[in-house]
Amino acid sequence: MSYEFLHRPPTPAEHRLLAESVGWGHGFAWDAMPASLAASFAGVVVLREGGPVAMGRVVGDGAYYFYVQDVAVMPGHQHAGLGRRIVEHLVAEVERVAPPKAFIGLFATDQAVGLYESHGFAQHPGMTGMFRVVPAAEPAVSS
């Protein structure tokens, strides 16, 4: 059976299943994901036999700044070209609407660097990618 590509962001359940399958389960505030996914600029979900096996999406302002996010392929389906096809679709969606010099950024795992480089992504001299995570709220202390 072949893969089916759906051009939409993942549902919260699909996102969680795929994120957990690649070891990213600890990296999300799951209660915030429905709103986050709904605000995606573009997305791709890949199905096999009716179940999700891969995903990716683009977030950003939809006009000039775009970020490839959450590209994940279940371990049993990696090395089948799914990540490449997801990134191709996401970049094409951005290029369809973005003006010249628009920014497409991402953070890559060490294993995915080659995939993104093959699509023209590169580190640039004089620039360093950085990020900050909002800390968890301190538990309330009752008196």
TrEMBL record:
SUPFAM superfamilies given in the database record: Acyl-CoA N-acyltransferases (Nat) (SSF55729)
Residue ranges constituting the N-acetyltransferase domain according to the UniProt record: 1-141
The keyword Acyltransferase is assigned to this record: yes
Keywords: Acyltransferase, Transferase
InterPro entries: Acyl_CoA_acyltransferase (IPR016181), GNAT_dom (IPR000182), NSI-like (IPR045039)
Coiled coil: none
Cross-referenced Gene3D superfamilies: 3.40.630.30
Record-given protein name: GNAT family N-acetyltransferase
